[in-house]
Amino acid sequence: MEKISDGEKFPWNRVPRLLKAAIIAAAVFLAGGILWLILWPRPTWYVEERFVMDWEFVLKRNDPPFTRIRAYTPEKGPPRRGTGWIITGDLGDSVGDSGDSIGTSEGSVRDLRDSSGDLGGNVGTSGDASGKAWGAVRIMRFPDETLSEVSGGDSPDSTLADAGENRDTLLLALDPWLVFRKHSHQGLSRNRAEAAGEGSLLLPGGEDEALWAWASQLLQERPGIFTEEDETWKRTLEELPGDSRFWQEALLATPNSVGEFLELLATPTIVGPTIVGKFLAQESYWFDTVDLLLRQGLSWLYAPLSRMRELSSYDMGLLTAETFPCRPEWNEYGLQAEILQAIPMPGKGQTEKLAVAKAWLLRPEIQTAIADQLKWIPAHPQGEAYNPISRDAQLAWFSSSFLWQRGR
Prior knowledge:
Keywords: Membrane, Transmembrane, Transmembrane helix
Largest sheet: 12 strands, mixed
Region (Disordered): 93-126
Low-confidence stretches: 93-132, 143-158, 250-255, 267-279
CATH topology: D-Maltodextrin-Binding Protein, domain 2
Transmembrane segments: 21-40
Structural class: alpha+beta
Strand content: 15-25%
């Protein structure tokens, strides 16, 4: 065989035509394969930024059908094209900012609309300086006709928990707001929730989410129908912390300095090594009110379940949970809750993989793992309760006919 000397070009003219064609075909095939790997849609979890770490933890421990994750921020919203599942806690994430549905190769992701056709039931228009309505509320109902008229309407036969999904959206876990009290104390009545009376109604007025939660309960005119006047929302939010129905009495406190001792001495009631200082609802936070709930007499606290799951097993064992008291003429109720949901993004050639992922998401043990990671409860009726308080929350969820959360 003739050797090619250094510096001499490869003699392509001596290569047989068939071999040339084979080399060119192999190069084209290789380039095409690389391009296919880059451009062909791969099943992906598109996860809202605040849930990414928890979702990664769940995937590592529960053998998922695929593991590719892409995070997105609430400001930009989920991607408009791709294939996989969107994992989000915002009821508004099923549509883009313009109101158009997210485009997919097999139609579009259905948007969650209430029976009036308005996305998420947003109410209020003037809002604050940023343009956000004070009383923006997003609502999920199942089915669309669940909300019956108060006068003569029959109670709905179905609940959100019965189906496990709302249209194309899968409900995975939720963090419901409930009224917490000690086992030995009586429940909160609607009359006591609306006016001063016996017992201590605790409000962490320094927590914006707690103020809004109370306002939404008081401004719910009918099940799922909230006051639309933005000024009413604003006034209610401003006046709630100083309202006489909430605990505004003395709080036992230990002074940490001479200055604090002299300040507390201005309210001169000394009890043992502690001094009674004034407690104002607007100056309190979750840790203040949870502590009071555990050591006060008759008292109630409206809070999300996740706040209570931070307590020790002993402290949680002292408490029970119930839904916020409805007006006596109502024949159904909804549950305020943060929600984790999965929205499909179909893609060409990925139908089978997405179906496998859907089956995986709907398994009760997977939803239990998700809920435990978030300190929430699973949406699946057969999901396991973390403790008796979580079971109380599940019972409330199973009986609810709609959910709502604060608009973002």
